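Annual report, structural modelling task.

Input specification for the magnesium ion complex:
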Amino acid sequence: MKRKSFIYWIIALITIGSLTIGIYFNRYKNQPYIESRYLMDTYITLKIYGRKPSEVKQAAQAVFERLKELETKSNRFGDQNSEVVTINNNAGQKEVPVSEEIWKIITASLDYGEKTSGAFDLTSGPLVDLWGINGEHPQIPSPEEIKDTLALVDYKEVETIENNRSVRIAKPEMSMDLGGSAKGYALDLALEVLKEHGIEHALVDLVSSTAALGSRPDGKPWRLGLQPPRALKGEANLAIIPIENQFISTSGDYQRFFEENGVRYHHILDPQTGYPAKGVTSVTIVTSTNGLDADILSTAVFVLGPERGMELIEKLPGVEGLMVDSDLNVLTSSGFKAENLKSYH
Ligand code: AMP
Ligand code: MG
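The model returned the following structure:
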């Protein structure tokens, strides 16, 4: 009897010991490397899983370097090395050769200009400046100012010359603004770099847009909490969105706005009216295509509004969306996956 219980003890100890060692190594393997930096006007957080810490750190470094380059190229203010500044300074004059990155963003933006009948307009620059919503001193413009400025917003005035990869804005004083698209493209570049470094599981988070490379290391989808656009009875999330090899982007009237006389003026402008787009509080797009699509579409669908926006989502393969309209109804496209989806009513 004594001997038997001794053996049991030995077996129990060995089991606990090997379990502990197993958990320890597993945990080590599954520990992500996390690093954040402020770039492209937002916090960028990388959460990377890999085999060796040194490899993972190197991958993160390379991602940030690549995104720094994109920031320089796509900036609309100040930086004379910016391709966008050069294009805008040459509006009405000559064509400007651009990098592959800027070419991709511009051509995709023009494409969505067509798909949305101009609801997404790459040349919203003058209108964005008039409202000053992205700056320190936003203001409500006069109707005359809006009318005059709208004459400078038309994506059809952008010429792309494929054989020498250059771009020209046909009319003087027009300008392009990549605020609705560049962050999404940053996700695509980040994933490209991570894959080059052999990474298979990572999350790239730019606050309003996120990319999931692969699944979580345990094979399950990543689960992202979706911020409610308005307070929701003490709930932190409007829903949990599972994503795997997908991109998610949210555009909301709560992200950048000012208020005057109780009216909220936000940063997503309707090129038809010249005023902040109405009818929607937030749009979340999930795509399996790329980050550029997700970012452009969240802005575009916001401008299109609930009906036309949802129609577009349903038409595009690999695209799903969730919308909170201005009456705080939560609408989802037919294939949208959400866990624990809440409602305002
Ligand atoms: P997002 O936060 O991705 O929805 O992008 C909003 C940003 O896109 C704004 O801050 C502007 O820089 C720019 N923008 C605003 N309205 C439009 C529009 N109708 N089409 C394209 N870009 C826009
Ligand atoms: Mg966008």
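The pocket of adenosine monophosphate (ligand 1) is lined by residues 120-121, 124, 128, 134, 177, 179-180, 208, 251, 255, 267-269, 271, 295, 298-299, 303 (CB under 6 Å).
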